[in-house]
Design goal:
The complex is a heterotrimer.
Chain A lengths: L1 H27 L7 H8 L5 H35 L12 H15 L8 H23 L6 H25 L2 H12 L7 H20 L1 H8 L2 H6 L4 H23 L5 H13 L3 H25 L8 H22 L1
Chain B lengths: L6 H12 L2 H7 L1 H12 L9 H21 L20 E4 L5 E4 L6 E3 L2 H9 L6 E3 L23 H6 L4 E5 L6 H9 L2 E5 L4 H14 L3 H21 L7 E6 L4 E3 L4 H8 L3 E2 L8 E3 L2 H6 L4 E4 L14 E3 L11 H12 L6
Parallel strand pairs in B: 3-4, 3-5, 5-6, 7-9, 7-11, 11-12
Antiparallel strand pairs in B: 1-2, 7-8, 8-10
Helix pairs in contact in B: 1-2, 2-3, 4-9, 8-9, 9-12
Chain C lengths: L2 E8 L9 E8 L4 E5 L6 H8 L7 E6 L2 E2 L5 H7 E4 L11 H6 L14 H13 L15 H14 L4 E5 L7 H16 L3 E5 L3 H7 L2 E6 L2 E6 L1 H4 L2 H8 L3 E5 L6 E5 L3
Classes of the chains: A mainly alpha, B alpha/beta, C alpha/beta.
């Protein structure tokens, strides 16, 4: 028993420490160089107005958003993989990114953006909600049960439909709109604000806690629905909760940070390769690792070619893919 | 709406408008920079007749100076009389996003995120006030300034750290973050959207008002008008060839809403797709062939579809798609392509 | 635990013939009950009906006198261990963790395994002869090993009843016999065992009673001697066969004949 507990606990502590260090680094470093002591004095309430703004209103909310979105994406990806019993599943597989991007592009192309600064996130969340309900409606209509194979198919098809809608709008839009839409779809945390952080946190934190209570049902779903039912799980309830909760987290993230790939795919797999597929460890560790990973990716995105920024989704792929391949090779070797 | 100006600015303006035109350019470092800028900034933008380009720009500058000297500072407006300190009247401008900003003092530190607006500021002799640039600004005198990255997605952190009093930004409905974050940082910003020639006029006027150089802005505007008029007079009466602008891949054509459409008209051409509703639209090759196009303009460095071979094709720089101070030069370039006989 | 059905009708789709058509049977507490029948005769459907996972059109399917559909799933899972026909594992998992899932019905959402749980898991691993596999990845097991691990998971539930759908289908003689002896021992110790199988001879040898299904109806029910009769089996399986006492065990033994 001590064997099954100690490794995850060590990993939990190690990953948490790493995530904290990354977050500290992302407050410390940026396009503008500030010394560590300057940053600390700002955090204690000192410093000049401009430097205070940079640290407290730009870097801190950005780090907070990275934590919530990165953690949420990894958690959501882990849940979708178990729910769909498909290791290739990621948070966006069921059309959420398509729906959210559609909502965002409509706002970008119509200029409703200028109505309010929250117009885009609201539209993205609404688009994601439409996609979620559409997919759920299709997968659920057959004999009042949710068939995950139908869910997967419906999700992919709904996503493709929204992609076509986006392509149609963008083919008629002007160049700046196209550029903004493409940048948005590549994902960025540069729009981080405390208000956005508060909204994402409101969705992500309670729902993430709810998902943690689904750890054992998810373990069972991963070995098959029938067996899960015979081991005491209310399978339909667990599936609906898992789908709904993981979707909400993914939608909240995508609304405020755009479509950030690879986090939801690579992080849960990495944790699984190191620690196994027990969702009691996989879920919280995915959240922590995803949070640290996205904070690190964003730190690189805004410092590597500073003052210009690279889309964070590019960094998550550049950093994540080689690391993941290495891990995969190592796990095959042992 | 005529702004009062600080002593320093008034002096700067006075030097241009009141000193003798021959010496005006060499008197102050600001003017020195402005002249260097206008001479060098567009290097590489146009590969047509570079010598003529420089001559043209110099003539624009000369017109600025002449215009000013013809209308001394004193006649320019209601701030004419008296030489002492005046009560500050706040400058109010409405930007291209419909936002009204007022400036109690003319902003001393400016960052322009739009290269064409940066060019206007330099032409207005405001190098001293510019404290940052984007990665897309080519003017050599700007290169020593810190960059804030791209103009559409600048590093807000870097931008804020420059502590500008004013940020000139591109009006993009799609980028709500830059204005929101500037508001949060308490930094004034004006949005501009140079789509058409009329927009250039308005932007020059607005920036001139903000920096307290309305006369100089007027002069620039007049010289642009004059330059464009000269181009259209030069091609007047000539048969107007049917022209299509093809850009991108797959190629899209420029419709009636584009700056290029205006330029083609001024340069004595007829936009074959003047009926296009969208700014740029994808059309079939059949449609292009069907319209008996006589000239193809393109920004593409590589070959056009085979079906279009045989139609005279001119490559124009990408920058010609975005209006700025070079509008006269762009119009003249096109006119020379369409009507080489009118430009011996 | 007692499984009981009366005039049970289960239909999967309107307009199609019922999967079960008036099945009445009773598995007494502490007995090993064998369910036989050709493919598609309704064996697995009967099992699902008795476990409350399919809807009953008419009749009853009760567990301990309560309709199976009305049981709380967790309580049923604490009482009944089920080994389904097959199961596809989506992610790598170690044998010990898979067997440990048998304890889930007994644990709260965040409750870690206690000493009692560990004892149940170790005992189940031992009983099913898979102790030496405990640290292996399930994906590296042979078909027979995997089957024993799944039975071990059901045993780890410490259930009062076991329901198994062709559990020995892929096992070699040694492991098949070991499992059947384990089931027999369990029944003797008071567990109710419901065993679906195609192996008529071994079912007859180990079961207390047998049920023979044909196209959703009961073709025969009773002791091995009552059910294993040539005329009944030939009609059900539509194949000529002979039933003779086994020379070694003396039990009735079925031998399929040539054509």
């Amino acid at each position: 028993m001590s064997r099954t507990w100690s490794r995850p606990v060590v990993a939990l502590l190690g990953l948490s420490l790493a995530a904290v260090l990354v977050v500290l680094a992302s407050i410390r470093f940026g396009a503008v160089s500030l010394t560590t002591s300057e940053v600390f004095s700002i955090l204690r309430g000192g410093g000049g107005a401009t430097d205070r703004f940079i640290v407290l209103s730009l870097r801190l909310p950005r780090a907070a958003l990275a934590i919530l979105v990165g953690g949420g994406l990894a958690l959501s990806g882990a849940v979708f993989q178990a729910l769909l019993r498909n290791p290739l599943a990621e948070p966006y597989i069921l059309g959420i990114s398509g729906g959210a991007a559609f909502g965002a592009v409509v706002v970008l192309a119509t200029g409703w953006m200028s109505v309010s600064s929250v117009a885009l996130p609201i539209a993205a969340i609404m688009g994601a909600a439409i996609a979620i309900l559409l997919v759920f409606g299709v997968a659920f209509s057959a004999d009042r049960r949710m068939d995950v194979r139908v869910l997967l198919l419906a999700g992919v098809v709904v996503g493709a439909f929204f992609s076509a809608c986006i392509a149609l709008i963008l083919s008629l839009a002007d160049a700046p709109t196209v550029r903004s839409a493409v940048l948005w779809m590549m994902g960025s945390l540069s729009g981080a604000s405390w208000r956005g952080v508060a909204v994402v946190a409101t969705y992500t934190i309670p729902v993430a806690l709810l998902l943690l209570t689904l750890a054992r049902p998810l373990n069972l779903l991963a070995i098959g629905e029938e067996t899960a039912a015979y081991l005491g799980t209310d399978v339909e309830r667990a599936k609906r909760l898992a789908y709904g909760a993981a979707s909400v987290i993914a939608a909240a993230g995508v609304a405020f940070a755009g479509v950030i790939g690879f986090v939801g795919l690579i992080i849960p797999h990495g944790i699984r390769l190191i620690l196994g597929a027990d969702h009691r460890f996989l879920l919280p560790l995915s959240f922590i690792a995803g949070a640290g990973f996205l904070a690190l990716a964003d730190l690189l995105a805004r410092t590597v070619v500073a003052p210009a920024e690279i889309p964070v989704g590019v960094i998550t792929a550049f950093v994540g893919v080689p690391f993941f391949l290495l891990l995969l090779r190592r796990s095959l070797g042992s | 709406m005529i702004p009062d100006r600080t002593e320093e600015q008034r002096r700067g303006a006075g030097e241009v408008s009141c000193d003798s035109p021959q010496r005006g350019f060499t008197r102050t470092s600001a003017d020195e920079r402005a002249r260097t800028n206008t001479r060098r900034a567009p290097r590489g933008l146009f590969h047509y007749r570079a010598g003529r380009r420089v001559a043209l720009l110099l003539s624009v500058l000369a017109t600025v100076a002449t215009g000013c000297s013809e209308r001394p500072d004193g006649d320019a407006g209601n701030d004419a009389e008296g030489g002492g300190d005046r009560v500050s009247i706040p400058v109010r401008v409405e930007d291209d996003a419909g936002r009204v900003s007022s400036f109690a003092d003319s902003p001393g530190r400016i960052v322009s995120l739009v290269p064409s607006a940066t060019g206007v500021l330099l032409a207005l002799g405001q190098m001293e006030r510019i404290v940052g640039r984007t990665d897309f600004d080519r003017a050599p005198e700007l290169q020593d300034l810190p960059s804030v990255g791209g103009g559409l997605n600048p590093s807000i952190e870097q931008l804020v750290s420059l502590e500008p009093d004013l940020v000139v930004r591109f009006r993009a409905e799609s980028d709500p973050d830059t204005p929101r974050q500037l508001d949060a940082a308490g930094i004034s910003h004006v949005a501009i959207r140079p789509d058409r020639i009329a927009d250039i006029h308005r932007i020059i006027g607005m920036l001139g008002t903000i920096v307290g150089q309305p006369e100089r802005a007027d002069s620039i505007r007049q010289s642009i008008d004059r330059g464009l008029r000269e181009v259209s007079e030069a091609v007047a009466g000539a048969p107007r060839p049917s022209v299509v602008f093809l850009g991108g891949n797959p190629p899209s054509v420029a419709g009636a809403g584009t700056f290029l459409h205006e330029l083609i008209g001024i340069a004595g051409g007829e936009n074959a797709f003047a009926d296009g509703e969208n700014l740029y639209a994808l059309v079939s090759l059949e449609e292009i062939l069907d319209r008996d196009v006589e000239f193809i303009l393109t920004t593409e460095p590589v070959g056009l579809p085979e079906a279009l071979e045989g139609i005279p094709t001119a490559r124009v720089p990408l920058e010609m798609l975005n209006p700025g101070l070079e509008v006269v030069e762009s119009a003249r370039t096109l006119a020379e392509i369409f009507h080489p006989d009118r430009f011996p | 635990m007692i499984f009981e059905s009366e005039s049970l009708v289960v239909r999967f789709a309107r307009g199609r013939p019922p999967a079960l058509d008036g099945v009445s049977m009773r598995v007494p507490s502490g007995s090993l009950y064998g369910v036989l029948g050709p493919n598609g005769s309704g064996k697995s459907t009967l099992m699902r009906a008795l476990l409350g996972s399919v809807e009953v059109e008419s009749g009853r399917a009760d567990v301990d006198g309560t309709p199976a559909r009305d049981w709380n799933r967790r309580e049923l899972a604490r009482a009944v261990g089920v080994v389904t026909q097959s199961e596809g594992i989506a992610f790598p998992i170690r044998v010990r963790d898979l067997v440990g899932m048998g304890r889930y019905p007994h644990l709260g959402a965040f409750e870690p395994e206690g000493a009692e749980d560990r004892r149940a898991i170790e005992a189940a691993l031992r009983e099913c002869d898979v102790e030496m596999l405990a640290d292996r990845e399930v994906s590296t097991l042979s078909g027979g090993e995997f089957q024993r691990v799944r039975i071990a998971r059901a045993m780890a539930q410490r259930p009062r009843a076991l329901v198994l759908d062709e559990p020995t289908a892929s096992l070699d003689i040694r492991h098949e016999m070991a499992i059947l002896k384990l089931l027999r021992r369990s029944a003797d110790a008071g567990l109710t065992v419901l065993l679906i199988t195609h192996n008529i001879n071994l079912a007859a040898r180990f079961s207390d009673r047998l049920l023979l299904l044909r196209e959703g109806r009961v073709a025969a029910e009773g002791t091995a001697g009552e059910v294993l009769r040539e005329e009944i089996l030939e009609a059900v399986y539509r194949w000529p066969l002979a039933v003779q006492p086994d020379p070694v065990t003396g039990e009735p033994t079925v031998t399929p004949l040539g054509d």
